[in-house]
Amino acid sequence: MLILFIIAAIVFRIVMLAISMRNEKALRENRAIEYGSRNSRWLALAHITFYIAASIEGLARPTSFDLVTIIGLALYGFGAVMLLVVAFLLGRFWTVKLMIARDHVLITHPLFRWVRHPNYYLNILPELLGFRAYAARLFHSYGRPGDLRGAAWHPHTPGGKSDAQALPWLLTD
């Protein structure tokens, strides 16, 4: 099921990217101006890297399907729906880049009055947190109390113990 989720998430993002590229091409033909192009490239690279890292971690450290993974799936679903809503509301002006069209119009939909940047706060953050929580089973990759199989070793823990072994010490001092 995890592999299907990862494939579906990637396909969804590719479809949305295709829509963005189509809109961007039309905006450029109408002399729209792009702002922060370097930031857009870095954000896209970070987004892709995050997806890859969470996917690898999730596949390398499988865990059980529980409340955390359900919450992650719900968060991801919320973020994906909000992306569709924002793209629909912005229509031909929606892209993954910051572009201002010569004939832009102010979107007065309540969503844009309630949340200053809904694409960031209602799409990207929940999507990435949800993807991470579901794909890599957030918090579960380090094992459960007493289960040291997934624990990571850090030199900053007392006596070079794993996170799971050091946790009681961290909570008591």
Give the class from helix and strand content and strand pairing: mainly alpha
Instruction: Please outline the major beta sheet.
Output: 2 strands, antiparallel
User: What is the beta-strand fraction?
Assistant: under 5%
Q: What is the average of the pLDDT values?
A: 79
Shape: elongated
Number of helices: 6
Number of strands: 2
Give keywords.
single chain, 173 residues, mainly alpha, two-stranded antiparallel sheet, 6 helices, elongated, disordered C terminus
Outline of this structure?
The chain is mainly α.
Structure write-up:
The longest helix is centred in the N-terminal third of the chain and has 28 residues, at 2-29. This protein is mostly helical. Helix 1 (2-29) runs antiparallel to helix 2 and helix 3 (67-90) packs antiparallel against helix 5. The chain is built from 6 helices and 2 strands, in the order αβααβααα. The termini are far apart. The chain has helices at residues 2-29, 37-60, 67-90, 110-114, 118-135, 163-172, and strands at residues 33-35, 98-100.
Would you spell out the secondary-structure blueprint of this structure?
Blueprint: H1 2-29, E1 33-35, H2 37-60, H3 67-90, E2 98-100, H4 110-114, H5 118-135, H6 163-172
Helix pairs in contact: 1-2, 2-5, 3-5
